[in-house]
Amino acid sequence: MKKKIAILGSTGSIGTQTLDIIATHSNEFQAEVLTAGDNADLLIEQAKRFQPNCVVIANQSKYNYVKQALQDEDIKVFAGKEALEEVVTFSSIDIVLTAIVGFAGLKPTVAAIKHKKPIALANKETMVVAGEEITRLAVENNVPILPVDSEHSAIFQCIQGEYHNKIKQILLTASGGAFRGLKRKDLENITVEDALTNPNWQMGRKVTIDSATLMNKGLEVIEAKWLFDVDVDNITAVIHPQSIVHSMVEFEDGSIKAQLSRPNMRLPILYALSYPKRIKYDNVDLNIFDVKNLTFDKPDIDTFPCLSLAYKAIKKGGNMPCIMNAANEVAVSKFLRGEIKFLQIPDIIDRAMEEFAFIKDCDIDTYIQTDREVKDKLIRK
Ligand code: NDP
């Protein structure tokens, strides 16, 4: 039996790589649902090629365009944000891969968990904003959350067979992004193009900027806390420019386990989809004799304060990670549009964390309200 996959965000970096895997492993996997935000043309192309049961275009104004293009295909077409929450509940789906970027991934993920769909989680912002609620719902519905993020996949692989052993420390590796080694004064006039160049990973625009500010590592610290139930004081970010060691776990006896591979997202995507099996995948092998130098350094938090902001947010708890995430989403999109400078990104987030109302006890609606409030105010500024 093929595993039927709903890919939320099939037109993005993770989504297209997931479809590559489905194409090369068509005996194992099948695309059941494909969704896009805005990119109707790519969604249509993917639908014609992969023949899913249905597609969703979140931008409702593109519904007629997609519907018309697929009129000769046996593929249902839906549009709008609510449709994303509905399609993940289809009984034919075996696993939902959440590769929407940002807060927009939250509601469909919640809907999928409530309908007992296993989650292959790429959309880290969901765990950052609502990790406590998401993990509670996952336990309540007996739903596995399988990490797609390479670092969390590495940790997940390191703890296989270790469930009764306490984790002493998670060592979360980071490439260091486009500006590793630079100081604040070097970052004053960098351009969007400079920031969109990651040395090791080809990713979507938002996560590439997050990587350059080190906010990506901050988001991942929070994601790791919830996925692996580890106190954030025991999660340490490590700059590892080669991106060969994807993270490490230190146990109580001092033993450190690591997962190594070439920097290629197809591996963690495949592992999340095939877990607990491992499936052959060509052309991604790491030749260990090519690895001459593996280095590990402390992050420069004076130059890249976003990492500290993430620790501060999760230690405060409540809606603070949600405030931080919303402010980051606004700041990154402003930077990408050329409206603010790179160094203003952490300033905007820091100020938002001071200014917006802190709420200790939250449910999903509190997060939705907080996200809307922060974004509305910051977008207008
Ligand atoms: P991309 O920007 O490349 O893709 C995002 C996807 O989400 C696209 O399909 C986009 O549709 C869709 N989308 C965007 N906004 C909305 C919305 N409001 N409603 C519905 N769909 C929407 O992002 P990535 O693939 O790089 O990242 C996706 C997630 O995975 C992020 O959370 C990221 O942090 C995480 N991740 C990414 C990695 C990577 O290597 N890329 C590595 C690890 C984690 P469209 O393009 O059609 O508008």
Q: How would you sum up this structure, described in words?
A:
The strands form two sheets. The chain has a seven-stranded parallel sheet with strand order 4-3-2-1-5-6-7, with helices on both faces. The N and C termini lie far apart (53 Å). Helix 3 links the parallel strand 3 and strand 4. Helix content is 43%, strand content 15%. The longest helix has 17 residues. It is α/β, with parallel strands linked by helices and 381 residues long. The mean pLDDT is 97. It contains 15 helices and eleven strands. The protein is globular, with a radius of gyration of 20 Å. Bound molecules: NADPH dihydro-nicotinamide-adenine-dinucleotide phosphate. The site of NADPH dihydro-nicotinamide-adenine-dinucleotide phosphate has 28 residues, from helix 1, helix 6 and helix 9.
Strand proportion, as a percent range, falls in 5-15%
- The number of distinct β-strands equals 11
Which overall shape is indicated by the principal axes computed on the Cα atoms? globular
User: How big is the Rg?
Assistant: 20 Å
Bound molecules: NADPH dihydro-nicotinamide-adenine-dinucleotide phosphate
Largest sheet: 7 strands, parallel
Strand order of the largest sheet: 4-3-2-1-5-6-7
Helix % is 40-55%
Order of helices and strands: EHEHEHEHEHEHEHEHHHEEEHHHHH
Mean pLDDT: 97
Low-confidence stretches: none
Going by helix content, strand content and strand pairing, the class is alpha/beta
What is the rounded distance between the termini?
Answer: 53 Å
Note the main attributes of this structure.
11 strands, seven-stranded parallel sheet, four-stranded mixed sheet, alpha/beta, single chain, globular
